[in-house]
User: Which sequence fits this backbone?
């Protein structure tokens, strides 16, 4: 079991997270990378890095042979799988062991049992762990699933047996929606996990999602490290996690902890694992699944226990006993984690791709940022859209929440749309502040999310920063003796027109310099005086009408500007009126909002369609996305076919709009 070199079979923030701890332990580290990640931070962080294939995950991060070859060629004796990709693949764990390497995680048997929701549920029922009523049988025919659904009752959940992360999962309200849910869940499950086996479960209404962190060693010791509340989730994908759970009691924690450690013992578990439960309003809890790996949200447990879970994983894999007993585990304070995604909340959380213009994470007391991105990096469509995690710890939940809000404001992330503003709004919602959020929280709170718009102060700041950066660039290329002449004009200066577009809205502004670092900016019915107090990329300290204002900023490549005010970011472009005619064309043309694989085409030329009707389904960033008609009309052309990979902006369907 002894090893001195670890290969991390992953990418992004979790690869960086593992590499940091491994190097701190004095171990040599090896990263792997695909063509899409050649310049990614995890590649340069490791002592050695090996290319394992092209960008698609199936040809790189999911290629067992390529990863084992990388371990052999680099001299690695152990492999840490992180989370996602091959982390819960029993065949991969078995292949690592067969190659004479150490797999930093449980053995193949535990992964096999617990990684299959059907097998896991059968094992938990046998071990006496409370489970939700459902069907987890081998007969996967549509007829059997329909019959079992009638027996269980509606609403119910359709789940991929091998799934995780919300993929291959559907909530079904009634029998009419079941056949389509089964078909889509199967397809997503096969694409995401290589298995289309499903289970059915009664839907527990409005529960909390509470999970217990367990740890076991090879010496028979099994402990738990308290719980995490992961109830704030969208489409079964966790968004906010915290520890401890706001409604936890000592008796309930002890009962859930016993059930979780019983679950681990039932499969002779070793290493870090998480046993997930649904907790109803009466204090009853039911086994949901066990994740046989490190969780995305493990930092909140680390912050309240003071333990490094990756270091514990490595030590256990080397044969060491756990350094603490159950009685020695103490929970201190409160921690909350947010997941920053490349997605557009105003467009139904559609994943986005693009180049990161600026990334500067926050620092401060109780703040931790786990990230695997850097300025200039391109976010591709090939992997999960999570960019980073922001975590805050404090002596109380309120202190942690306020620290996290401040960290969101101070973390500059510009260049592509993210969910940062939405996360800040979640933290301010009364139900979240009161600790009352259940898994229904987001659905109950948000009925669509409007795209944010800049106010007049933000517009004025954007105009000043654009003009000031331009003036500074000109100054750098000139022979001016000093900056005191910037903005000087013998006639006092004339207003400069600055027309900025945000989305479809054009703001006609004018700005006039009043010395080297002061400007007067006006719109149709407003005026602001802006003073530049400090300006150091990517942040600026401004004074607007006597009030301080801190913003993040980054010029784009076309004369525009990315501006971040608080947690909300805007992209303001220089208005080009000559492009209006071209931009207005093609309102009946549906184009791809992101690169993706065409899964299905649901219309044909000549078909009549209604606004909102599904035209095609794309798969990108591990999820399926339905492309819908924006208008009533008749399909005149279908430009795609199932199985085709298309790029952003590719024409999908052309519709001749109804004129009546």
Assistant:
């Amino acid at each position: 079991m002894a090893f001195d070199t670890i290969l991390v079979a992953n990418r992004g923030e979790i690869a960086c997270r593992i590499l940091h701890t491994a190097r701190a332990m004095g171990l040599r580290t090896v990263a792997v990378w695909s063509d899409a990640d050649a310049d990614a931070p995890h590649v340069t962080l490791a002592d050695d890095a090996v290319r394992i294939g092209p960008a698609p995950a199936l040809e790189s991060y999911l290629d067992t042979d390529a990863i084992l070859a990388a371990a052999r060629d680099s001299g690695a004796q152990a492999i840490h799988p992180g989370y996602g990709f091959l982390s819960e693949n029993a065949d991969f764990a078995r292949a690592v062991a067969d190659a004479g390497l150490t797999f930093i995680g449980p053995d193949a048997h535990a992964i096999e049992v617990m990684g299959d929701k059907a097998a896991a549920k059968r094992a938990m029922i046998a071990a006496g762990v409370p489970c939700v009523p459902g069907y987890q049988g081998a007969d996967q025919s549509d007829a059997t699933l329909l019959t079992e659904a009638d027996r269980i009752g509606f609403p119910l959940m359709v789940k991929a047996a091998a799934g995780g992360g919300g993929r291959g999962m559907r909530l079904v309200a009634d029998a009419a929606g079941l056949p389509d849910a089964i078909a889509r869940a199967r397809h997503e499950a096969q694409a995401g996990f290589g298995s289309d086996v499903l289970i059915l479960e009664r839907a527990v209404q409005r529960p909390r999602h509470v999970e217990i962190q367990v740890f076991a060693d090879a010496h028979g010791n099994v402990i738990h490290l308290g719980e995490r509340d992961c109830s704030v989730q969208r489409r079964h994908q966790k968004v906010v996690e915290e520890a401890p759970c706001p409604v936890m009691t000592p008796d309930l924690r002890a009962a859930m902890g016993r059930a979780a450690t019983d679950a681990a013992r039932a499969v002779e578990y070793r290493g870090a694992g998480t046993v997930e439960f649904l907790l109803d309003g009466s204090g009853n809890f039911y086994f949901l699944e066990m994740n046989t790996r490190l969780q995305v949200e493990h930092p909140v447990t680390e912050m309240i226990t003071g333990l490094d879970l990756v270091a514990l994983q490595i030590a256990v894999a080397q044969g060491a006993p756990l350094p603490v007993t159950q009685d020695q585990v103490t929970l201190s304070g409160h921690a909350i984690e947010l997941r920053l995604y490349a997605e557009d909340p105003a467009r139904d959380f559609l994943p986005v791709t693009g180049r990161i213009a600026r990334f500067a994470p926050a620092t401060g007391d109780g703040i931790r940022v786990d990230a695997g991105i850097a300025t200039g990096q391109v976010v591709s469509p090939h992997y999960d859209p999570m960019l980073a995690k922001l975590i805050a710890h404090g002596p109380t939940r309120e202190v942690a929440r306020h620290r996290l809000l401040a960290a969101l404001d101070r973390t500059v992330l510009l260049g592509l749309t993210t969910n940062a503003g939405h996360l800040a709004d979640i933290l301010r919602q009364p139900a979240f502040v009161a600790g009352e959020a259940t898994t229904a929280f987001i659905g109950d709170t948000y009925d669509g999310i409007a795209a944010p718009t800049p106010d007049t102060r933000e517009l004025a700041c954007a105009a000043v920063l654009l003009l000031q950066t331009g003036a500074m660039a000109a100054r750098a290329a000139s022979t001016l003796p000093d900056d005191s002449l910037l903005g000087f004009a013998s006639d006092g200066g004339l207003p400069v027109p600055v027309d900025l577009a945000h989305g479809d809205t054009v703001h006609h502004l004018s700005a006039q310099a009043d010395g080297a670092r002061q400007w007067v900016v006006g719109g149709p019915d407003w005026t602001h005086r802006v003073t530049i107090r400090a300006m150091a990329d990517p942040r600026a300290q401004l004074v607007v009408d006597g009030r301080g204002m801190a913003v993040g900023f980054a010029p784009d490549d076309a004369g525009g500007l990315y501006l971040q005010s608080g947690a909300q970011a805007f992209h303001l472009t220089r208005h080009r009126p000559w492009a209006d005619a071209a931009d207005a064309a093609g309102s009946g043309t549906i184009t791809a909002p992101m690169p993706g694989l065409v899964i299905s085409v649901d219309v044909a030329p000549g078909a009549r369609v209604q606004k909102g009707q599904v035209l095609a389904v794309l798969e990108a960033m591990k999820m399926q996305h339905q492309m819908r008609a924006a208008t009533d009309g008749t399909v005149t052309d279908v430009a795609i076919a199932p199985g085709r990979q298309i790029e952003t902006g590719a024409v999908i369907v052309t519709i001749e709009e109804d004129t009546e």
In short: The first strand starts at residue 5 and ends at 8. The chain has five domains: 5-104, 133-202, 208-232+242-445, 456-578, 586-657.
